[in-house]
Amino acid sequence: MNSSLPIRVGIIGLGAIGEGMTQVFTEHQSTEVVAVCDVVEERARQRATDLGNIFWTTNYQELVNHPELDLVYVAVPPVLHYPIVMDLLKTKKHILCEKPLANSLSEAKEMLEKAEEAGIVHAIHFPLSYINNMKELTARMESGYLGKLRRIELEMRFPEWPRKWQKNDWIASREQGGFVFEVAGHFVQIIQQLFGKITPIETELEYPEDPTSCEIGILAKLKLEDGTPILINGISQIPGLQEQSISLTMYGTKGTLSLVDLVKLYGGQLGQEFAEITIEKDMSFWEEFINQLVNAIEGKPSSMIDFHQGYEVQLILEALRTPRN
Ligand SMILES: NC(=O)c1ccc[n+]([C@@H]2O[C@H](COP(=O)([O-])OP(=O)(O)OC[C@H]3O[C@@H](n4cnc5c(N)ncnc54)[C@H](O)[C@@H]3O)[C@@H](O)[C@H]2O)c1
Question: Can you give the residue ranges of the GFO/IDH/MocA-like oxidoreductase domain (predicted)?
Answer without folding.
Answer: 136-257
